[in-house]
Amino acid sequence: MAITATQDTTVPASEPPRPSRFRPSRDWLFPADQPRWARPGLLAVAALAALIFTWGAFHTATNNFYAADARSMSMSWKNFLYGAFDPAGSVTIDKLWGFLWPQALAVKIFGYHAWALALPEAIEGVISVLVLYRLARRWTGRSDVALLSAGLFTLTPIVAATFGHSGLEDNALTMCLILATDAFQRAANEGRLRSLALSGFWIGMAFQTKMVQAWTVVPIFGLVYLICAPHPLLKRIRHTLAFGAVTAVASLWLMVVVQLTPAADRPFIDGSNGSNNIFTMVFDYNFTSRFGSLSSTTSGGSFGGGGSDWGKLLGASFASQIGWLYPLALIALVFGLIKARGAGRADGVRAGYLMWGGTLGITALAFSAGTIPHSQYMTVLAPGLAALGAAGIVGMFRAFRDGEKLGWLLPAAIAATVLWATRLSYENTVFLSWLPPLVIALGLASILLLIAYRVRRIGKVLAAGIVLGTAAMVATPAAWALSTFDTSDGYNGTSINAAAGPYSGQFGSAGRTGGMSGGPGGSGSTSGGPGGTGQMPGGSSSDTGSGSSSGGLGGAPSGGFPGSSSGSSGSTSSGSSNSGAPSGGFPGSSSSESGSSGAPSMGGGGMGGGGGSTPGGSGSTLSTAQEQLLTYLKAHQGSAKYLFAVMSSGDAEDYIANAGASVLPVGGFSGNNGYPSLAQFKELIAKGELKYVLLSSSGGMGAGMGGSGSGSTSAIESWVKANCKAVSSSSVSSSVGTLYVCSSS
């Protein structure tokens, strides 16, 4: 049988399409739900932020007061939990210490270095930029708004300066509040209780960093959720109450743990007005006292508007750091609320405008009513101003492009913002004097191009108009922010104060002409600084002269602030203060410039000493005399618990920060916190736990604080002089003070 070939006519089944290869790096860089430029743009902004923040952090002197606390906290988990200022765990700092937890962990992991203290602050800044991008994108649904928000935030002068510092509470506070806002925005949009609870948790973490200031957002979040969340009213009320409960627990748990711990088993609470009660420290010393002395005679519109002035946020001192986009943000808020007028109750965009407007408004009101001793307080305003500004630029541009009447708010916003920036710029005619005319030219050209577009409808004309307009509004704050790279002119602030541009070091610097005016609510001969009135804060640039300081609130000392590294000294007289607070300069002011302040130089630190460690280095600022003193004391310490005692935390900070020395800071931060009492001090001597006491040549606590000593500290100082023997040794230089040895017999 013949075999014939047949053709197979079966149609093969079609093969399933081969799945596209998953390329993680490419899919992450160009996510499908965002424009191709969005993620690369975000990475570029984050890289710029990392560069600005790390440069500042590694080129600004370390605040030795907080560096000492971070080092002590890194030495044991008990010190970490209770915020012990000294290695032996005798006393805390005068505020909650959660902002130092990242630094203490970094020191524990990497050892004590200036870069280990600075790195966490820069990381907090980059996290803030990334989360703000996510927040703004979820709020508006637009990547251009989100990217512009992140960019405006990064190029805000006070943001560049603050995240470029180590040892400031406002870095962690701002990051935690951005995280809280991000979680709240999702909760308000979707009605998710879990997200609302997460927002409360982050507010609680913010409370650990800056105490009551973290709560400014709570009433606004609660009201916005009650108004806008997509749930029936009763459910919204239940969710809001749960949010409040989570916030309270997350905020107060540490205080409850500390207060319930027997006093003998934890450090003494500094800033508690001698009560050893952490609630007094938080709610009296660090809160109500800030609102106890408001000035009714100053004008915030003047150059350097004072720290107790209701108009301080409009004065050149603070507005130059945060306020360049005030007009843009305000007009953007009005535009957004009008635009969302017809939206439903649960509209997410409308809820966002209410949230940003409310939080900015209540925070600005609190700042206006209280005393603001440092410019870095302004950092928490930056996320809201950046988000509103970005949303306004994009939203008003689209409205103008589409021919809407509201679109005319765009050229109005450009004109108002440029005029405001020009006004602030001309408050200081020596810094970037070429910039105001350029900004005016850019703004005018932008407005003319926008008007021309309405006549001819040429797309390129519109594009040029919005680019020039945005550049005109952003150029000045960006230039101030980038000035922090110029460390030779001091444009990145001091160890205790973050500020960009020529106002760096003028906020809260003790010891300028006449000293800083009074501290919280105080008054003094130097006008203009926070706590003063009139001229540039902190006094003139001559760095000489004499003055007086008075005031102080609720036990808060008046004068400068801990860890100051740039103030030069003047002749300071003691004044009056409320609740026994001493007046004068705070511990840690620099000894690099001399006068007759009454505080000895103590070599590189100690009372009135170095305050700021070498940027980017190991952090050591101990002088040869201080090193010799430590060598002598270690050789003679024996079994004593403490290497030696001094009359305030300011005397101890350099020795603790740079050598990890176990120093007893009698009187704590203010020098008069009541711990230890004279009886307790004698007991330490009798038990052999303390042998040596170092007194400054002009009177211990009184020298550092500008007063003459008071309470138990003064009694201890007198007892030491009467009952202990002055050490005569070539290893003990008179430049560090007088060393006494006390016998336990």
TrEMBL record:
GO terms for cellular component: plasma membrane. Its EC number is 2.4.-.-. It is an enzyme of class 2 (transferase). It holds the Pfam family PMT_2. Residues 538-547, 563-581, 588-600 have a biased composition (Low complexity). Residues 511-537, 548-562, 601-619 have a biased composition (Gly residues). Residues 1-25, 509-622 are annotated as: Disordered. Keywords: Cell membrane, Glycosyltransferase, Membrane, Transferase, Transmembrane, Transmembrane helix. Residues 99-252 form the Glycosyltransferase RgtA/B/C/D-like domain. It is a multi-pass membrane protein. This is Glycosyltransferase family 39 protein.
